[in-house]
Structure formats: structure tokens, C-alpha cells
Design a protein that fits this description.
Blueprint: H1 30-39, E1 44-48, E2 51-54, H2 55-71, E3 79-83, H3 88-99, E4 103-106, H4 113-123, E5 127-131, H5 135-141, E6 149-153, H6 161-166, H7 172-181, E7 190-191, H8 192-198, E8 214-220, E9 228-233, H9 234-248, E10 256-259, H10 266-272, H11 274-278, E11 282-285, H12 291-300, E12 305-308, H13 310-323, E13 332-335, H14 342-352, E14 355-361, E15 368-371, E16 385-386, E17 391-396, E18 399-403, E19 410-415, H15 427-433, E20 434-435, E21 439-448, E22 454-459, E23 464-466, E24 469-471, H16 473-480, E25 486-495, E26 501-509, H17 521-528, E27 540-544, H18 557-568
Helix pairs in contact: 1-2, 2-3, 2-8, 4-5, 12-13, 13-14
């Protein structure tokens, strides 16, 4: 049947000034930074813990960092991994790699050696720019990869001079802060700040990337299975930055963006780097999220635009209300990765006087694809409308060539200039995700009204989203199956309050441990801490006698999840 959305009915609900389509300029991501450095040279580009870096200084550091990487033999097309918390060095590294025509591989700096090793080997990264505390894991993971250079970043090097000096004080607080920021550096690793400080600027005539070049490999679970690298081109990132700026109605040279989302996450990266540079915004970078730190920074440099996830908005609004902090400068907040409840939206908007706009995206869409209008027409708890230059279809998940009737459940398909180029080194996965005509299968089941406003009702994929991060059950299960006393395990997500979902381990004990109680939640968490990111560690444990399986032996995670939810319902329900 013909799609009911072929004539884009959602355009009638667009906010004033939002066009049906955007013009995507024929330029790389770095062009926006060059323009900002020329137009807003004295404006603060990055504020990290109170240390301000102007656009002029940022452009100079990017040029020197690119020169340093060029001298190390990094060339166009090379993959360079960045595993660094949010800080000025991360911003410099991102743009320096792109300026060379090389490809950024964003990695979670809290990953262990095994996870880093898999993604470094899979991407073929030849160099890693990593946090000092991540460097030992990178060094351990280096064998079996193409990595030939490790460059360690001391976060203290990005601090204001007085704060750096305070770290040397012989007091417990200074020692604790040093432990948070710094770590041992493996032999042979280069020092980022020393390397950049001594480098010559890159030759201005050095070839620049073109829009069709790959800019970023961003790891994601996609619609199935273990993490794989989504290929995002310069054109993808430029288009999505323009879509975001247009949708939010952001102004050039006046905005202050708070970077509380991690840059290694597609949502945090696009909203805080390409978007900020495109409008010459000041971006305040936070190495980790803390409502306390957000309010302190807001007093120093008031935010106007704040991207985040539901728990962040709840904590900031609650603390600001308790302290009487004025947040009225925040006109727009973008919420993604998990649903926003009407209560959270109301609390935030009462606290700020601004709008909390819920949207939808995925790494394969760079990541923004749909959003609620930035107006009184917004609808909390819905995904909103397709962005400019974005089309949608709602199809039968079992037959994506067949559109479902209006109002029926179906899988969301997306098409637009922000849709990725495929998965790195995985042609079969690419063919499964990208349908003829450029349609991206999201794996998410939605219901759309006659205007094209979508509401998420289910997921076809089994990944868990907790605190805005994706947890891949198979990875957690593979690790837990190596734990003594565990015969079998299924990892599922259940509703978990402000975090979105809680990771639950449903375990079948080995016969000799079934009556001994040797496996408890503390032991499971301790075992997982050896190799998994903190957000992937189970927060609940359920002991089962067996796991439900399909006729071919596959564990039915959805059945496990449904049984857990049914057991939690009141008897009268």
C-alpha cells in the first residue's frame, strides 16, 4: 500500500521558521570551526572547569594537533580512536583528526581492555588518543590490533592554572582529585599536551576532506547483536547539525551549550561539537555528569541550550529548586535516548520557563531524526515529527516493503541526508539495515497519527537502554557464563525509574551451587566489574531453574522479561 506520509503532513505542525527542507553545503565538518574562528575569534569556544579557550585559540590548537598527528604519519583515511572524557583536549583531537582527512573512532574511556581491543581491531585504528586512566587498558589491548601509537591525555592539563596548582597540595582532597583525573602512563605512550604544545601548525595547503569522506566510526548495536561501527560521513554530520540548529531555533554567536552528555555517545557528540561550532556557541564541557557541577557552572556561565536525558533533567531541576537557582536562561533543552514523562517535562519547564523537547534518533541517523516542535504544540512522551529533509514510513516489521494502515503499529523507517553510509566492514548488516531507496530500518515499533507524529510502543531489538546508554545483553551474558557457579544466564531490561531501564540478570545456577547460594548480586556485580562498563553491570539478580528457549535453542529474553514483569504486578492487577 502507499505510504500515508508521502506528502509529509507534519509540515503543517512545524514551528515558525523551520523549513520543509535544508540546504546541505558542500563542505566538511571542519569548515564550521574555520568560520567560527574567523567570525567569533575572541568568543569562548570551550569552557572546561573554568578554563576558557577562545575560538582563535581552539583553531590554533587544532592546527598544531593536526600538525603533530601528521608528523606521526597519520594520513587521510587512517582511523584514530579517541577515548577521552569531555574536555578541551577531546574537542581539539576530534577536529584535528578530521582536518587531516582521517577518521575519528569514538570509544568509551571507561571500557576495559577486552572491549577496547575488539573495537580497535575492528576499526583498524592506527593511533589512540586516550585518557591517562584509560591508557593501561589500551596498552593491554594493543596486541592484535593495528595500533602503533598511544597518546595519553592528562585531564589536569586542561584545568585553569590555579586548579592545576591546587592538585599538588598535600591534602586528602587534592589527592582524591588527582586520583580522579590522572593515572599511570604506559611506557612508550606520548603526552598529548606536550606533543601539541611543541608541534608546528599544519600546512594550510594540506588537502581537506570532502563531504563524502568518512568522518566518524561510531559503535552501536544497530538493529541486532553486538556493537558495530556506523559509518558517518562529513555530509551526514553537517546535515544533522543544520537540522538540529534549525529545529531548535538556535542563534549564531550567542548560545551557551552545556556538554553534560559524553562526547563518545552520538547524541552528545553531534549536539555539543558540530552544532556548537556551526553557530559559534560557547560549549561548557563536563568530564562527568553532576547536578552540583552543572549548577556551579551555570552561575559562572549561564546555559541557553542543554541536551540531556531524563535523569539529568530531573536531578538538575530538583537541585535548582532546592537551592533557588535561577535557570531562566535555558530556553531549549533537548531530551533523547529514553522517554520523558509529562511530570519531568512539567517540572523542568516550571523551573526554567523554557521548553523541554523530546526527540528521537539513533547513531545510524547521526543521530537526530524526529523531534517535538519547539512550541506549545510539543507532546511530551512522544517522539515528535520528522526533521526537515527527513521522510518516514511505518511498515510491517516482517515485510518492510509493506506500509501499515494509519494508526497501526509498525516499524519506523527513516530517510534523509543524516542517514549513515552503512556498517564498517559488515556488508550483510548494512544490507539488512539500509533498504532500497535509502530507507533506514530503525528496529523500533511506533504508532503515528495522521500528521506523522510518532509514539514509541516497542522495540524489535533486544538491547537495553539505561541512563541513555545501550547495553547489549549478549556481551553481559558471555561474560557471566564464565563466572563459577553460573550454568546459564539471560540479561533483560525492566522499567527502572529515572534511568529508563534496569539491567537484570536471570541466572540458572550450576547443579553443585543450586542450593548453596554461592552466587548473589554482589558477586555478580564484582565479576562484571572486571570487564564491563559500569552502566552494563546488572542491578538486579533473579535465580531461575531454567530459561525458556525457542525450538532451535535460543534463549527467549522477551519471555523472561515478561515473566519478571508479571511477577511484579499486584495480585489485584
Amino acid at each position: 500500500m502507499t505510504s500515508p506520509f508521502s506528502d509529509r503532513p507534519w509540515l503543517a505542525l512545524y514551528s515558525d521558521g523551520v523549513p520543509a527542507d535544508i540546504d546541505v553545503p558542500d563542505e566538511p565538518v571542519t569548515a564550521a570551526l574555520d568560520r567560527a574562528a574567523a567570525r567569533y575569534s575572541d568568543r569562548v569556544a570551550v569552557d572546561f572547569q573554568g578554563k576558557a579557550t577562545t575560538y582563535r585559540s581552539l583553531a590554533d590548537q587544532v592546527s598544531r594537533a593536526a600538525g603533530a598527528l601528521d608528523a606521526l604519519g597519520i594520513t587521510a583515511g587512517d582511523r584514530v580512536a579517541i577515548a577521552v572524557p569531555n574536555c578541551a583536549a577531546h574537542v581539539v583531537a576530534f577536529y584535528a583528526v578530521l582536518r587531516l582527512g582521517a577518521i575519528v573512532v569514538e570509544l568509551n574511556p571507561t571500557y576495559g581492555a577486552e572491549e577496547l581491543g575488539h573495537q580497535l581491531a575492528d576499526s583498524g585504528a592506527v593511533a589512540v588518543i586516550c585518557w591517562q586512566k584509560t591508557a593501561p587498558a589500551v596498552a593491554t589491548a594493543q596486541a592484535g590490533t593495528a595500533v602503533r601509537t598511544i597518546i595519553s591525555v592528562d585531564l589536569a592539563g586542561d584545568l585553569p592554572a590555579l586548579k592545576r596548582a591546587a592538585l599538588r597540595l598535600p591534602i586528602p582532597r587534592a589527592r582524591a582529585l588527582r586520583d580522579q583525573l590522572q593515572g599511570p602512563v604506559p611506557a612508550g605512550a606520548l603526552d598529548w599536551h606536550r606533543l601539541v604544545g611543541r608541534a608546528e601548525p599544519l600546512d594550510p595547503q594540506h588537502p581537506r576532506p570532502v563531504p563524502s569522506d568518512i568522518a566518524l566510526l561510531q559503535y552501536t548495536g544497530g538493529t541486532t547483536g553486538s556493537p558495530k561501527a556506523a559509518i558517518l560521513t562529513h555530509r551526514n554530520l553537517v546535515a544533522n547539525a543544520i537540522q538540529g540548529v534549525t529545529w531548535a531555533g538556535l542563534h549564531e554567536g550567542t548560545e551557551t551549550v552545556f556538554g553534560i552528555l559524553p562526547f563518545f555517545h552520538a547524541f552528545g557528540l553531534t549536539l555539543c561539537l558540530p552544532i556548537a561550532a556551526r553557530i559559534g556557541a560557547t560549549m561548557v564541557a563536563f568530564p562527568k555528569f553532576s547536578a552540583d557541577d552543572v549548577l556551579a557552572a551555570h552561575k559562572r556561565r549561564p546555559a541557553t541550550f542543554l541536551p540531556g536525558v531524563a535523569p539529568m533533567f530531573d536531578r538538575i531541576a530538583t537541585l535548582a529548586t532546592e537551592r533557588g537557582t535561577d535557570l531562566s536562561s535555558i530556553r531549549i533543552a533537548f531530551a533523547g535516548a529514553m522517554p520523558i514523562s509529562p511530570e519531568t517535562a512539567a517540572r523542568w519547564e516550571a523551573c526554567t520557563g523554557g521548553l523541554l523537547i523530546e526527540g528521537y534518533g539513533m547513531t545510524e541517523a547521526s543521530p537526530l531524526a524526529l523531534g517535538n516542535p519547539c512550541s506549545a504544540d510539543r507532546r511530551p512522551s512522544t517522539l515528535g515529527l520528522p526533521f526537515p529533509s527527513t521522510d518516514i514510513r511505518i511498515v510491517d516489521p516482517d515485510d518492510p516493503t509493506s506500509d501499515v494502515p494509519l494508526g497501526a503499529r509498525g516499524e519506523l523507517l527513516i530517510r534523509g541526508p543524516q542517514v549513515f553510509a552503512g556498517y564498517w566492514g559488515r556488508p550483510q548488516d548494512t544490507a539488512a539495515a539500509l533498504l532500497p531507496g535509502g530507507w533506514l530500518r530503525t528496529g523500533d515499533v511506533v504508532v503515528a497519527d495522521d500528521a506523522g507524529a510518532c509514539t514509541l510502543v516497542d522495540r524489535t531489538k533486544e538491547m537495553i537502554i539505561t541512563g541513555g546508554f545501550k547495553v547489549y545483553p549478549s556481551q553481559v551474558e558471555d561474560h557471566l557464563r564464565t563466572m563459577p557457579g553460573v550454568a546459564d544466564v539471560a540479561i533483560v531490561g525492566v522499567p527502572g525509574g529515572e534511568r529508563g531501564e534496569r539491567v537484570v540478570a536471570a541466572i540458572v545456577l550450576a547443579a553443585h551451587d543450586a542450593a548453596a547460594g554461592a552466587v548473589d548480586l554482589a558477586a555478580v556485580r564484582a565479576w562484571c566489574e572486571q570487564r564491563l562498563a559500569r552502566y552494563a553491570i546488572p542491578r538486579e539478580l533473579v535465580i531461575l531453574t531454567e530459561l525458556p528457549r525457542s525450538p532451535i535453542g535460543k534463549v527467549l529474553r522477551r519471555t523472561v522479561r515478561d515473566a519478571l514483569l508479571a511477577a511484579r504486578k499486584p495480585a489485584s492487577a
